[in-house]
Amino acid sequence: MSILVNKDTKVLVQGITGREGQFHAKQMIDYGTKVVGGVTPGKGGTTTLGVPVFNSMQEAVKATQADATVIFVPAAYAADGILEALDAGIKLIVCITEGIPVADMMKAYHAVKAKNAVLIGPNCPGITTAGEAKLGIIPGKIFKPGPIGVISRSGTLTYEVVNALTKSDLGQTTCIGIGGDPIIGLRFAEALKMFNEDPATKAVVMIGEIGGSDEEEAARFIPSMKIPVVSFIAGRTAPPGKRMGHAGAIVSGNEGTAAAKVSALESAGVFVAETIPEIVERIKQDVRALV
Q1: Using CA atoms, how far apart are residues 177 and 120, in angstroms rounded to an integer?
Q2: d(CA 185, CA 116)
């Protein structure tokens, strides 16, 4: 089992003929993802990587019956790419693009909610279901199928944690990089709910960071979960008002501080690790306790 994507998910790649789109589309195909086509306006009727290219999402969905898309489109056009995917009936959209104007994302965000679709990102590494499919830029070789779900706001830490879990023989169901922009689609609490309802997921690692209130919102949901959650908060040493990497990782006063997030999570019964080895050891304990 998994959440959101599996070996049967039919995927389109918006921007497939661009440098980044083509490179990562090939990695996705090599991993086993069912990439059924790509979209680049003006390139319709051609092929790349053995799949057809279409001028529009409407054409692509009609021809392929795709149910998911990955967006590798420049920031100025990425929000329009999200809207075009929605209009074509796509229900799972993964937007890798960073630097999308906030006003554009506000419009896209509300459109996604109105269509009851799922948006992962923007400014994210994507989603991978171990051994089945990957949509985005997460390296496939670090994964191993197993019972651990992973959700993260940090791209690099996602890779490090998954790699550490795999090396400790702790495989994964699905890993989601939700992105670090101020306005994103899928949030921690929503992803936790999905993992909680997946019978194959026995524990979840949640990698948060300073800024915003997403972790605190997740902490309010976690007590209702039937599976354990282990967390890690990046940016604990960041001074107030200092931007640390992601546009959403900004602390203002007491809002979004590492201390506030750790306190909320611990109050919800979550073990908050200070190092990656601590994450692995706690997950081992949690999984053993479930056997």
Answers
A1: 8
A2: 11
Burial class of residue 89 (count of CB atoms within 10 Å of its CB; 0-12, 13-18, 19+): middle
Instruction: Match 């990656």 to its residue by tokens.
Output: 276
- 55-61 contacts, C-beta under 8 A, 24 or more apart: 56/84, 56/88, 57/12, 57/14, 57/84, 57/85, 57/87, 57/88, 57/90, 58/84, 58/87, 58/88, 60/12, 60/88, 61/12, 61/88, 61/89, 61/90
Q: Is residue 148 within a helix (H) or strand (E), and if so which, with residue range?
A: strand 145-152
Residue 204: which of 174, 182, 236 has the closest Cα?
A: 174
Q: Which of 246, 264, 268, 280 is the catalytic position?
A: 246
Q: Which of 118, 100, 94 is nearest to 186 (CA)?
A: 118
Burial class (CB in 10 A: 0-12, 13-18, 19+), 160: middle
Q: How far apart are CA 85 and CA 103, in angstroms?
A: 19
Mean per-residue pLDDT for 135-156? 95
Neighbours of 102 (CB within 10 A): 11
- With cut-offs at 50, 70 and 90, classify the pLDDT of residue 291: low
Mean pLDDT across the chain: 92
Half-sphere exposure of 117 (CA within 13 A, CB side): 28
H-helix or E-strand containing 127? strand 126-129
Is 110 among the catalytic positions? Answer: no
Chain segment 67-123, per-residue pLDDT in tens: 999 999 999 999 999 999 999 999 999 999 999 999 999 999 999 999 999 999 999
- Nearest partner of 290 among 129, 146, 143, judged by Cα: 146
